[in-house]
């Protein structure tokens, strides 16, 4: 799947709206599994900090289908002027992707229309350290 197609899938689930003091759906994510299946999700922002990013929402749908290996991932957000932005995964999401399956260090993270990088390059020093003694 091309970066443009994956970005379009993430954009398609954007639906920002407020319920009380909570914001739902202002970031959308799309995950392409190693088997070629597409999963999407949105973020949930809560005042208490118990919300989550869009990437784990999409990954949860993938895991529900008993898939764990991620070929490609992207998250998008639209600013107040209507411009679409690709967002790199935050540190928590980077680690979450890695922990879903060890092979996900090779996941292509979409950083723009023609730009990707493997997760391992965004998550340095990810191996458990050797003992000092």
Automatic annotation (TrEMBL):
<keyword id="KW-0378">Hydrolase</keyword>
<protein>
    <recommendedName>
        <fullName>CMP/dCMP-type deaminase domain-containing protein</fullName>
    </recommendedName>
</protein>
<keyword id="KW-0479">Metal-binding</keyword>
<dbReference type="InterPro" id="IPR002125">
    <property type="entry name" value="CMP_dCMP_dom"/>
</dbReference>
<dbReference type="GO" id="GO:0072527">
    <property type="term" value="P:pyrimidine-containing compound metabolic process"/>
</dbReference>
<feature type="domain" description="CMP/dCMP-type deaminase">
    <location>
        <begin position="26"/>
        <end position="103"/>
    </location>
</feature>
<comment type="similarity">
    <text>Belongs to the cytidine and deoxycytidylate deaminase family.</text>
</comment>
<dbReference type="GO" id="GO:0042802">
    <property type="term" value="F:identical protein binding"/>
</dbReference>
<dbReference type="InterPro" id="IPR016192">
    <property type="entry name" value="APOBEC/CMP_deaminase_Zn-bd"/>
</dbReference>
<dbReference type="InterPro" id="IPR050202">
    <property type="entry name" value="Cyt/Deoxycyt_deaminase"/>
</dbReference>
<dbReference type="GO" id="GO:0004126">
    <property type="term" value="F:cytidine deaminase activity"/>
</dbReference>
<keyword id="KW-0862">Zinc</keyword>
<dbReference type="GO" id="GO:0005829">
    <property type="term" value="C:cytosol"/>
</dbReference>
<dbReference type="GO" id="GO:0008270">
    <property type="term" value="F:zinc ion binding"/>
</dbReference>
<dbReference type="Pfam" id="PF00383">
    <property type="entry name" value="dCMP_cyt_deam_1"/>
</dbReference>
<dbReference type="InterPro" id="IPR016193">
    <property type="entry name" value="Cytidine_deaminase-like"/>
</dbReference>
<dbReference type="GO" id="GO:0055086">
    <property type="term" value="P:nucleobase-containing small molecule metabolic process"/>
</dbReference>
């Amino acid at each position: 799947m091309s970066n443009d197609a994956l970005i379009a899938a993430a954009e398609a689930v954007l639906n920002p709206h407020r319920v009380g003091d909570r914001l739902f759906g202002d970031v959308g994510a799309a995950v392409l599994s190693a088997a070629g299946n597409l999963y999407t999700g949105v973020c949930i922002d809560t005042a208490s900090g118990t919300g989550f990013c869009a990437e784990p929402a999409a990954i949860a749908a993938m895991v529900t289908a008993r898939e764990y290996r991620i070929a490609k991932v992207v998250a998008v957000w639209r600013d107040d002027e209507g411009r679409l932005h690709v967002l790199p995964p935050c540190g928590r999401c980077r680690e979450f992707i890695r922990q879903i399956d060890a092979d996900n260090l090779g996941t292509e993270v979409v950083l723009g229309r023609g730009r990707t990088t493997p997760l391992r390059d965004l998550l340095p020093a990810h191996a458990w350290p050797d003992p000092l003694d």
